[in-house]
Specification:
It is built from three helices and 17 strands. The chain is of the alpha+beta class. The longest helix is centred in the first third of the chain and has 14 residues.
């Protein structure tokens, strides 16, 4: 955790951020990268707070996020390797599968980055899926230079290391409807080489039913 001196006077209570080395094995990381390549990496779009006429949320592609992604959806997550990884994440967080989004496999080419942002999408708190209360991010590769994960409000950054996981809260411990403002973060630019990663998000309510009904995205 950061020291009190690092924080603004009006900050929320200090969030917990957990780093877990060797969370995924080299073989699991390689499997996810290969699966993302097989599925096809595409330019990542961002979910916006705009609600369209069909009840889904808007998306945009901007220069603030230059990653590529592939989603491990049904068919992918039913494979033994994915089941093992997802089962470990559920055990770590104490969450249920129905509260999870599909895994997002990420690729950042040289220069790739994601500017300061927060994983909580405010309008989801009013939807059936509820807010993203937890994020579990895994570095799937080492990076020659750059690509750190930086928590901007606390001025703390984590160096990429293959298999390293970082778990943090997006809401307050005692109120899942209130954003934890100290967990704004950014993916710093990759200066040399490529960077692969994995996002897992956990919601306060049943995300799978909401996705099937088109009530969250």
């Amino acid at each position: 955790q950061p020291s009190e001196e690092d924080l603004p006077d009006n900050a929320h209570p200090l969030p917990w951020i957990v780093m877990l080395d060797d969370y995924l094995s080299n073989e699991e990381c390689d499997w996810l990268i290969a699966k993302g390549t097989e599925l096809g990496f595409r330019q990542t779009s961002e979910i916006t707070d705009e609600i369209k006429e069909d009840g889904t949320f808007g998306e945009k592609v901007g220069q603030g996020r230059t990653s590529l992604d592939a989603w491990c959806e049904r068919g992918c997550e039913d494979q033994p390797e994915a089941k093992e990884i997802i089962g470990r994440m559920l055990s770590t967080t104490g969450m249920q599968l129905e509260n999870t989004e599909f895994l997002e496999i990420l690729k950042y080419n040289e220069g790739g980055h994601y500017e300061r942002h927060h994983d909580l999408i405010t309008t989801q708190g009013q939807a059936r899926c509820g807010n993203r209360i937890l994020t579990l991010y895994v570095f799937l590769s080492d990076v020659e230079e750059g690509g750190e994960l930086r928590f901007t409000q606390m001025n703390k950054q984590i160096t990429p290391k293959k298999g390293r996981a970082v778990l943090w809260q997006n809401v307050l411990d005692n109120d899942f409807d209130v954003m934890q403002t100290l967990t704004f973060h950014e993916a710093l630019p990759v200066k040399r080489g490529n960077k692969y990663g994995l996002n897992a998000w956990f919601h306060s309510r049943n995300m799978r039913e909401s996705m099937a009904a088109g009530c969250c995205y």
